[in-house]
Each structure stands twice: as structure tokens, then as C-alpha cells.
Amino acid sequence: MKRIDVGIGDYTVSKGDDEIKTYALGSCVALVVWDHALRCGGMIHIALPEGQINPEKAQTKPGYFADTGLPLLFAELRKLGADRRTCWVKLIGGSAILDENKTFDIGRRNALAVKKYLWKIGLALTSEEIGGTISRTVALAVPSGTLTISSGNETWTL
């Protein structure tokens, strides 16, 4: 199985024998989508909710922002033939690691921006693992749809 790493502000889709993985989600969130009929999936690593705070970055790295990156992720999934009726959609991350007093509340704002976009396009989350004060690493095994989350010495599936 080939591993495809997704960095901050990146997104990817796959229909192959791949593992899609992103690391150290703090206040960032990952949205993972998997189509069980086609056995294809995708992931995006979002750092901030809205691209309007940095229009230049939104142009050069649209995946960095929920509002500019999510439409692109779903467009790429459609190109693979993914069908919303056979997909699950999961959200991970959104912690308050460096902001325990919730001064900026980026993690919660990122999660809300993703949920707002999904609501707008008529999709609901299948499950979520968000909030708290832990960093999470997420891996999707594309052939099986197994989603693994790890933090420290702990690993679990979602």
C-alpha cells in the first residue's frame, strides 16, 4: 500500500491501493470522505475557516481554508465517480491545544465552517472526533475505508 501524505492546506483523492494520511491535527481539521461502492476516498487538512482573511493564500493554497478547499475536494471526488449516496463523511481535529482559554477558538470555528459547508450541499457527517486538547494523526486505508486515528500512544478507528 502506497502512502499519500496530506500536509496543512493540502487535499487529495484516491481510487487505488493507497493510504491517505495527515499528521498532528491541532486546531486544524481533516475532512475524510469515502465511497464504499467505488472504494475511493479523499482527505483535506484545513487550517482556517475563511479565505477572506488572506485572499492571496486562498488563491495559491485553497485547501488551507474550509470555504475555498472543500468545493475542490468534492469536485475531485466527483471526477472519480464518487456518489454522495454511497459515501460516509467524517470530521477529525479541531482541538484547543495552544488556546485552552478559547481566545481565538480556531478549532471550533474550523469544525463549524466544515459543518456549514456540508449543510449547504446537503451532506451530513457520519461521525466526528473533534475538540479537546489533543493532537491527532489520521489515516484512511482507501481499499477498505478503515479510518484510523492516533494520538500519543493511543490508536483507534472511527
Describe this structure in a few short sentences.
The relative contact order is 0.22. The chain is an alpha+beta fold and 158 residues long.
Q: What is the mean predicted local confidence, pLDDT? A: 95
Could you tell me the CATH topology label: 60s Ribosomal Protein L30, Chain: A
How much helical structure, as a percent, in the residues? 10-25%
Beta strands, count: 10
Low-confidence stretches: none
The number of helical runs is 3
Give the SSE order as H and E letters.
EEEEEHHEHEEEE
Largest sheet, strands/sense/barrel: 5 strands, mixed
The rounded distance between the terminal residues' Cα atoms is: 20 Å
Determine the strand fraction and express it as a percent band: 35-45%
Number of discrete domains: 1
Describe it.
This protein is of the alpha+beta class. The protein contains three helices and ten strands, in the order βββββααβαββββ. It has one domain: 60s Ribosomal Protein L30, Chain: A, CATH 3.30.1330. The longest helix has 16 residues. The model has no long low-confidence stretch (mean pLDDT 95).
Strands, helices and their partners?
Blueprint: E1 2-5, E2 11-14, E3 18-25, E4 29-35, E5 40-46, H1 55-60, H2 66-80, E6 87-93, H3 106-121, E7 127-130, E8 136-141, E9 146-151, E10 154-157
Parallel strand pairs: 1-3, 6-7
Antiparallel strand pairs: 2-5, 3-8, 4-5, 4-6, 8-9, 9-10
Question: What keywords describe this structure?
Answer:
single chain, 158 residues, alpha+beta, 60s Ribosomal Protein L30, Chain: A, 5-stranded mixed β-sheet, 3 helices, 10 strands, 23% helix, globular
